[in-house]
Write a structure and sequence with these properties.
Layout (H helix, E strand, L loop, with lengths): L3 H5 L7 H19 L3 H8 L3 H9 L6 H11 L4 H4 L10 H27 L1
């Protein structure tokens, strides 16, 4: 992830590999929050789940075209994946509301899992 220092100093990460890994990590985190499997995402964009794994680990670089396909399949804006590189850009109020709702849903699910584990 970009450090606060790098973002505030408007510096780019040291190398392309770092960017590839960060983009992949954001794709994975977003996919997981949305509850989408690698297999389903792969099917939606026309690649194998192994290719999705490679994107998420930063082993293979995500092309601009594939980034668009991935974002369309997950119904998100590409800015959710690359937004940290553009700190002056902020999501709209509608998008923030949607993100907050997703976060609340995830927190409720997590609480349910914790209760189930406690009851076992």
């Amino acid at each position: 992830m970009l450090t606060e220092e790098a973002m505030s100093a408007n510096e780019a990460p040291i190398d392309d590999r770092t960017i590839d890994q960060e983009i992949g990590a954001r794709i994975r985190a977003t996919r997981e929050v949305l509850g989408v499997t690698q297999q389903l995402l792969a099917s939606d964009v026309g690649v194998t789940f192994q290719q999705i794994q490679k994107y998420e680990k930063g082993i293979n670089r995500v092309s601009a075209a594939m980034l668009v396909k991935l974002c369309q399949a997950m119904k998100i804006s590409p800015m959710e994946i690359v937004g940290a590189y553009f700190p002056h850009e902020r999501p709209s109020d509608d998008r923030l509301d949607w993100l907050q709702e997703k976060l609340l849903t995830a927190e409720r699910k997590l609480a349910g899992v914790r209760r189930a584990l406690r009851d076992e």
